[in-house]
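## Example pair
The file below holds two records. Each record gives the amino-acid sequence first, followed by its structure token line.
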Amino acid sequence: MQVSRRCQTLKPSATVAVMNRAAALKAQGVEVLNFSAGEPDFNSPDKAKQAAIAALQANQTKYLPTAGDPATRELIARIITDRNRIPGVTRDHVLITAGVKMALYLTFQGLFDLPEPGQPARELLLPVPAWVSFAPIAELAGAKVVQMPTTTAGGFKITPDQLAAAITPRTRALLINSPNNPCSTMYTPDELRALARVIADKARTTAPDMVVVADELYQNIVFGTVPFMSIGACPEIAERTLTINGPGKSFAMTGWRLGWVSGSGPFGKAFIDALTKLQGQTITCVPAFSLAGLRAALTECQDDIDRMRAEFAARAELIHALLSALPGVRVARPIGAFYAFPDISAHLGRTSAGGRRIAAAADFAAALLEEHTVAVVPGEDFLGDGPKHIRMSFACSQETIREGVRRLGEFISGLK
């Protein structure tokens, strides 16, 4: 007997693999400086925790409507309308999910079908490097992932001409992740408007059912000179944009497993209705008491966001300066989220002090962990130029950043 081909061919998350290896070393008493986890090192806001506790004590432990309770969906719709400036969103356009990964999973299941025998698959356009789970989740739904390469010099962003050339009659969706994981760069409002014009033009001719999937999970962690903007705020594509967000990163609520997906206009409502059926056949609904905490986070915890964002900004400046000073390392300045994505390709083909041949980023990361106990994520699973890079999360203290980059510098100086 065997498991399905779907499970056999699915790659495990590279990020989780590094986190597990670092945890195993730590359990053995080894001091590991962990730059792998995409998880804030802050605690969830007290007001959110207190609201959830109060809801538990009030016995809010029963089933909710599958899409989430009306009050929380209404609140999210109001935020999307007022802050993100996306028109045509009501509570009926919002589905609350068990984390952003589930929001993405349901969205891709709602957009793609497994191709008929002998027929080409519909395509997801994916700017790369990209978060490691985008492609596998889309492929599980039957999508063909078309990689759109970006570079450090270009700020890891696609151009309008590049997008226009990539759209074909088989294009079903474009994924936009801004601010970006793993690169911590983001599109300017003018750049998003230019992409929106291309999409609107191609929708009239080449790809009439193309949509945009906008992962805006890091919306509130922006500290550079580029202001955040939702691509769904562009009126010409508002009703063909699906926006995904959640409190995990901005509010340090990763373990709460909350997220949402929203649409706009008639298609957005029909799509959310369809995803609600899918959710009803999977998790049924999210826990009622967790939504009390979510409402508190969204309405009472701006000070927590501001405090965390200020610290991330200081860490971004620090890690960028320290990495930029290392020989043979190039790194884009982080302006959102909390990652650095240094290019270490100048050191590939060398040998570590411990005798490991560094043929790829995975070898670089493995040797760095074993020889200097610094955990980073190798770039291969981020696709595109990823194999030339490592990802370092700076969701850790400035002291850890200083010591971790010092050890990284020691490791590099020992390469032969």
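Second record, same layout:
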Amino acid sequence: MELYLLVIYDISDDDLRNRVASFLKTMGLRRIQRSAFLGPTTPSLNREIEAGIRRLVRGYDGVNVQMFTLTKTCYNSRIVIGDFREPEDEIVLT
């Protein structure tokens, strides 16, 4: 089964927010909204990303990061209202 990881966050500190975004990109995720990243995943990659984010945000207050593992069916059944934005680098979910 193909799995995808959706990571959303609310981080007020600009430097930390940029470091989290850069980390998610290096882990193979692509930005789909300003504070949302998506990409193919595995259970071990999920653990690696979770550990990396925990390290980055340690000691910061007011941080909210949420990770959702989605099946291809879940992703394809989403409802988009408003302007649709293709993920950066046009991630292809086949």
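Notes on the second record: Residues 90-94 have pLDDT under 50 and may be disordered. The helical segments are 14-26, 43-57, 72-76.
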